[in-house]
Amino acid sequence: MDRHEYMTTGEFASAMGVSKDTLFHYDDIGLFCPEKVSENGYRYYSIYQMETFDTIRMLRDLGMPLKEIRDMLAHRSPERVMHVFAEREQQIDRQIEKLKAMKQWLSRRREKIADAEKTDFSEVTIQAFSERYYLYGHVADGLEKSIYRKTSELIAEFKKSGMRSDYDAAYIQYDENVQKGKFTEYDNTILLVDERPVTGQYEILPGGRYITAYHVGHWMNIGQTYERLLQYKEQHHLKTESFYIERYVVDNFIAKEIEDYVTEVAVRILDASDR
Length: 275
Fold this sequence. Notes:
Layout: E1 6-8, H1 9-16, H2 20-28, E2 36-37, E3 43-46, H3 50-61, H4 66-74, H5 78-117, E4 125-129, E5 132-138, H6 144-160, E6 167-174, H7 175-179, E7 188-193, E8 203-205, E9 208-216, H8 223-235, E10 243-250, E11 262-268
Antiparallel strand pairs: 1-3, 2-3, 4-9, 5-7, 5-8, 6-7, 6-10, 9-11, 10-11
């Protein structure tokens, strides 16, 4: 045996940057075995096996199970290797798309948190919103637990559709209730998204100028925020839509206590063409 062409287990492990236990395990399962075993049981690896080990390591980095790698190496051919590599390329493409969507989600969340930090929640203002879209869920009994359950169903539906953009849990409050002072009665929950859903049923929330006010604290006290908004509307002689959108801008994702939650209340101003 030419000593220059072979390495002991320790030498091969050191050269490849792995532990000896990894080599022992690969040998035990028949994935990667030493080229020679001496009479006294010492394992020896050929320098020409380094390329094969690099291939195994690359396939492991791609997420291929050891059993699949073993089967591929045992029956390898140009056609089989091409097929396996094509499958892995497709998996990588899907992972890349998923990572891009996750990055977009994180970026959008950061923007929302940054916007919340620089917003004066005591002011009532007019803001411009682009066209948005929402999934609607009816809640017959109006109970808080029913609203949360329906919201969870909408989120599951949203994720099942394959969309990975950010979303906001929100609610529609109707002017009929507002005029009667019934600020905490709800029969719905919605999932508000900036991107048009590619599948499923959804509604369109028109873009335009919105009177916007913010409520800090528990939603049961949101009536005082509606009163500020209505006062602003009256003072500026504005005509608005017959429904309001309530959207959390600070929720349990970034606030520990419900007293620190912030709800945005917005209603679209009707232009002359809308009246």
